[in-house]
Amino acid sequence: MEWFKRKPAPPPTERKEIPDGLWTKCNSCGEIIYVRELEKDLWVCRTCSFHFRIRSTDYMDILLDADSFTEYDVGLLSLDPLQFKDSKKYPDRIAEARKKTGRNDAVIAGIGAIDGRQVSFAIMDFSFVGGSMGSVVGEKIARAIERSLDRQVPLIIVSCSGGARMQEGILSLLQMAKTSGLLARLSETKIPYISVLTNPTTAGVMASYASLGDVIIAEPGALLGFAGRRVIEQTIGQKLPENFQTSEFFKDHGFLDKIVHRHELRKTVALLLDYLSQ
Amino acid sequence: MAAGGFYLEFEKPIIELEKKIREMKEFSSGGGVELNSEIISLERKLEKLQSEIFSKLSRWQRVQLARHPKRPYTLDYIQLIFSDFLEIHGDRGYADDKAVICGFGKLEGEKVLIVGQQKGRDTKQKLERNFGMMHPEGYRKALRLMRTAARFGRPIVIFIDTPGAFPGVEAEERGQAEAIARNILEMFKLQVPIVIIIIGEGASGGALGIGIGDKVMMLENSWYSVISPEGCAAILWRDNAKAPDAAEALKLSAPDLMQLKVIDKILPEPTGGAHRNHQLAAQIIKGELLVSLEELKQLSTEELLRRRLEKFRAIGIYDEI
Which of B250, B309, B313 sits opposite A169 (nearest CB)? Predict the structure, then answer.
């Protein structure tokens, strides 16, 4: 009864960034893969379908028509309203992230097209302070929703985030309210919102706009959830199920509409837009 | 009361002086003039001591006050503020989450829905109330009843007092993130005035899941933040004992939030904190509820909802070049 056995999901642990050598080893099955080939396969292992973490710009290449994207709100910059300092000062942390990623914050937003259909598109970038949501991310997402409303075009948000950005305290928490409030307005129109979840999408982002799509899809094996694994283990001293907080777990419990292989991502989103657009 | 003789470390000098005054009063009940003047001078000293300690509370001290085991909880306020309270249970989907209380009540005759997280006083109650930590069905129960209230034109009064949404396996299985997100979105659509008062702890998504309203106010010694001081300390310093430092860093006190333009008003507490005088704390809240609801009732539904969205739309501090 082979079909009866469920394929165990890869452990939702921290995965390596994109490899830069000639050969690399699959994090899940251990297969040695030629990097050029992996790149051609959109960073999905041919043997076990493990999805490597990719850059936000890679997703834009996968999802959007070539040269269709215009970025907006590039000039939004984080300030330090709490004068927050842990091991580093918050402004230093931001400066480092900007240098490392060449981006101003953890989300890129603008107008693009999918199969010629204009969309308001926003994508989060985990490499920028864990994709965390502070005032800038919240404002950019808010404006992306407003662009959908103004232009009457579908909204697509690709999430990838550890949650609200602690260094901006309560202001980060309330970005959940800001974004969800605008989605409340969108939900009263006939403009579709597709929420695409990638590895990982958790906490404050998961408990706001990521969970509010008309359709919510995710890549296989992504870490999805509200509370962190460590917090749950500490709070309740329970052993956590093997596939806990994965895409598969979320879908099984009815909170994810569809798991979509990266190779099918563009086609699926395009088809959804076709079904839902006026 | 289970919390019997409990006091916080910084309350100790006050408690001791009070005890001394009480003893002297008992001793002097026969009436010696000399002793009476002594008592009066001690009472003055007490007043001075109290204002000294409470005028410069650290953020961590406020967190401790917000968690004081004698602090009034949602049910205490319900009893002291509303009449004819009628509790309604269950989310009609899975269960009745006892960490949140929902029901109708009358505020000087005005019929309202009351929603509030409830903590327990003794161990049995604490477990029954799950320490005020809601599961998804709690958020769904609150939303179901808020929709009912909106349909029948009843304003909504919300008391926030939670150390966080429950982080557990079942909570994840039943969609904690979805439940909170859904509530936040739907609360922007409720066509009745919503007044929110943070009475104790306002921890993260657990608080925000019933935290969208037209007026958001905080009691003087409550806190509201993206994460608890302990959670923040565990992540950033890998040490729960650094919670007092985290409380400072997070700027989670009512004055901080007023400055960050996140709340509308700070409600003063009785001298020494709300736990020293439940009656007075309730009176202060009641007065504010009456004023706020009267004010909000003047607005058309359209105006009410437009302002509600604008209020949260405006939150955030950033630069734009």
Answer: B250
Q: Are residues B34 and B70 in the same domain?
A: no
* Residue range of the domain that includes B26: 9-56
pLDDT of residue A231: 80
Compare CB distances from B208 to A177, A212, A228 and report the shortest one's residue. A177
pLDDT at A14 over 70: no
For residue A251, the chain B residue with the least C-alpha distance is: B173
> CATH number for the domain including B279?
3.90.226.10
Higher-confidence residue of A6 and A19: namely: A19
Chain A contact present for B181, CB below 8 A: yes
| Annotated domain spans of chain A | 18-52, 54-276
| B168 shares a domain with B43 | no
pLDDT at B4: 60
Q: Report residue B30's pLDDT band, with 50, 70 and 90 as the boundaries.
A: low
In this complex, is the C-beta atom of A170 within 8 Å of any C-beta atom belonging to chain B?
yes
User: Could you report the per-residue pLDDT of A94-124, keeping only the tens digit for each?
Assistant: 999 999 999 999 999 999 999 999 999 999 9
Quick check: B318 and A76 CB within 8 A?
Answer: yes
Shared-domain flag, residues B25 and B123: no
Judge whether B205 is closer than 8 Å to chain A, CB to CB. yes
Percentage of chain B surpassing pLDDT 90? 90
Q: What is the mean pLDDT of residues A160-178?
A: 97
Query: Across residues B103-131, what is the average pLDDT?
Result: 97
| pLDDT of A11 above 70 | no
Does A91 contact chain B (CB < 8 Å)? Answer: no
Pick the last residue of a domain from B19, B40, B56: B56
Contact state of B236 with A87 under an 8 Å Cβ cutoff: yes
Q: What CATH number should be reported for the domain whose range is A54-276?
A: 3.90.226.10
Q: Which residue of A has its CA nearest to B182?
A: A212
pLDDT band at B230 (very low <50, low <70, confident <90, very high): very high
What's the structural domain count of chain B?
A: 2
Q: Which of A226, A234, A242, A253 to mutate to test the interface with B (most CBs of B within 10 A)?
A: A226
Q: How far apart are CA B218 and CA B253, in angstroms?
A: 9
pLDDT tens-digit series, residues A234-267: 777 777 887 899 999 999 999 999 999 999 999 9
